[in-house]
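input
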Amino acid sequence: MEALTGGIDVTLMMLLLLFAAGALAGWVDAVVGGGGLIQLPALLLVPGMTPVQAVATNKVGSIAGTTASAATYLRTVTPDRSATIPAAATAFLGAVLGAKLATLVPSEMFTPIILAALVGVGIFTVLNPSLGTDVSLRFGETSKRHHGLSWLIGLVIGIYDGVLGPGTGSFLVIAFVTIIGFSFLQASVTAKVINWATNFGALVYFVPAGQVVWLLGLVVAAGNVLGGIFGARTALKKGSGFVRVVFVVVVSAMILKLGYDVIAGMIR
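output
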């Protein structure tokens, strides 16, 4: 049993709360990304769990949710393969590298940078109400820039996802909307495929390293699958306008959370 719990004293209430957190995170992540903002803090609250264990266990839930939501999306929406496939490939490699860095670099070093990026993204999105309403490719599917930038987006965000994770889907969505020219809905579909690759890449490192707390990860995964399916169905039904609104709300919540972390760290 200890192999499944990582030596953590597991209670029924803990499992129920993690399932609920996983379900809510799965719904948010399926719509616009950022479910890790809910799921990772919930895991960090588990007594005895180290930050690296929490990050690793979070990937188990996330990959289950992204699989379910991606499968739901792909039944209706066909992603731009010329951008999605190369980005997923480099994201996988970036996530493996990021997972290694997660054991070496204090996460506090990244928080101020991520906060500044989120503030910029939030302001830019609010000031551009037509952004992501429709597909408007910047360079064309066959151009070298279209492919090259997709590779770069995947690599950079893949490294971030391996190191920390929360907000990865949101960063992918805004990158593909602003840099490539996707609609919010199409960007969400693309983000799910790439996010699956980053989660898998991180687990390639974390599982052999013995960092995953499997019982908690599987419970979170069950909730994530449920939330991911319903979230994808909601996004498909409501369209890009709805996804944009949820995106702004999630980014705002992330700014508040990370801003609080930065201020609390300064006070300490």
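quick obs: The chain has a mean pLDDT of 82.
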